[in-house]
Specification:
heterodimer; A: 180 residues; mainly alpha; Rna Polymerase Sigma Factor, Chain: A; B: 163 residues; Arc Repressor Mutant, subunit A; 2 domains; 0% strand
């Protein structure tokens, strides 16, 4: 069933259609939120807020609607809100210590724990504009077109900014590894 | 190509987006410069490692999202029930107040108004019923027209005699 059909079914009160939408997009939203906030509780809050907003949005959806782009955009906005609140409350320093453990997949086990922590804390130190691109492209594997549509920025800007983000991230990772 | 260009085109290179000539230039530089070679490999390794930071929701988290549907449906139902309750309550209050004025003489003017209202409602109801009958039973309709015509003729005759 495609997204349009799922939304239509959901509008008519089909619970299964909502479950299918949740199954399809919850991982993406949670992963973006987690990698952006580096905190699973906050990522869960974002996940909940985004899906409540999405449920209310469904009633208004008419015709063509790109769910993925909309969810990415809304998730990013919620994460930035959280980041601003944190910054205001001077909690930003907690970021590096606040990386908690989620249930690990076998793939995750392959990556050494300390390396993963370095990566996560390095990402959390990046500027938001760079951070979101690393998350969407390198972690979530979204295409440049999808990123461009979600963030409403030209593809050329996405490419150049992502390149800059990767270089910056590598520098941060290197400095952390050297400091260990 | 110089070292600063390598930093600029590294993503295009690892994602195979460089054209043939640029790619050759890029690789020629890498062949000569160890620092850049290491840098490109590190960027490649970094992008490969980042994939493992991908997260998934667990059963409990998903369950919390599932119930958004039920919660919202319940809220909608509650809202509808509230509206219905208010409609019933308002109607009951109006009927109660109306009866109070109709059957008692607490405020004489209101008593009069309610009686006038009731008689008007009765007249309207009788007229409506007769119209319904007219359209549902053609014989009655014809009879009523005849009766109406007779009444008009009688009136005319009476008028003629008087004139």
């Amino acid at each position: 069933m495609n997204d349009e059909a799922l939304i239509h079914s959901c509008k008519t009160g089909d619970k299964e259609a909502w479950y299918m939408l949740v199954n399809k997009y919850s991982n993406l939203v949670f992963s973006i939120a987690y990698n952006f906030t580096a905190d699973s509780d906050e990522a869960e809050d974002v996940l909940q807020e985004v899906f409540i907003k999405f449920f209310n949005k469904i009633k208004e959806i008419e015709g063509d609607f790109n769910i993925k782009s909309w969810l990415v955009r809304v998730t990013k906005n919620y994460c930035i809100d959280i980041w601003r609140k944190r910054k205001r409350n001077n909690f930003i320093n907690e970021l590096n210590e606040n990386i908690d453990s989620q249930a690990k997949t076998p793939e995750e086990e392959l990556l050494e724990k300390h390396k993963k922590e370095i990566l996560e804390s390095s990402i959390s130190e990046l500027e938001n504009d760079f951070k979101i691109l690393i998350i969407l492209r390198d972690i979530e594997g979204l295409s440049y077109e999808e990123i461009s549509e979600s963030l409403k920025i030209p593809i050329g800007t996405v490419k150049s900014r992502l390149n800059r983000a990767r270089v910056l991230l590598l520098k941060k990772v290197r400095s952390k590894e050297d400091g260990m | 190509m110089e070292c600063k260009d390598i930093e600029l085109f590294v993503s295009d290179y690892i994602e195979n987006r460089l054209d043939k000539d640029k790619r050759r230039e890029f690789e020629n530089h890498l062949f000569e410069c160890e620092k850049c070679r290491i840098f490109v490999e590190e960027i490649r390794e970094l992008t490969n490692d980042l994939i493992y930071l991908k997260k998934g929701t667990n059963f409990i988290q998903k369950n919390r999202l599932y119930v958004i549907f039920d919660n919202n449906m319940e809220k909608e139902e509650e809202k509808n029930n509230k509206v219905l309750t208010w409609i019933i309550l308002t109607a009951a209050t109006i009927i109660l107040v109306f009866n109070l004025f109709y059957f008692t003489n607490l405020i004489p003017s209101m008593n009069k108004i309610t009686h006038i209202l009731v008689s008007k409602i009765e007249k309207t109801a009788v007229r409506t019923i007769s119209y319904i009958k007219m359209f549902t039973n053609p014989e009655d309709f014809a009879y009523m027209i005849r009766k109406n015509n007779n009444n008009l003729n009688n009136k005319k005759k009476k008028g003629g005699k008087n004139g």
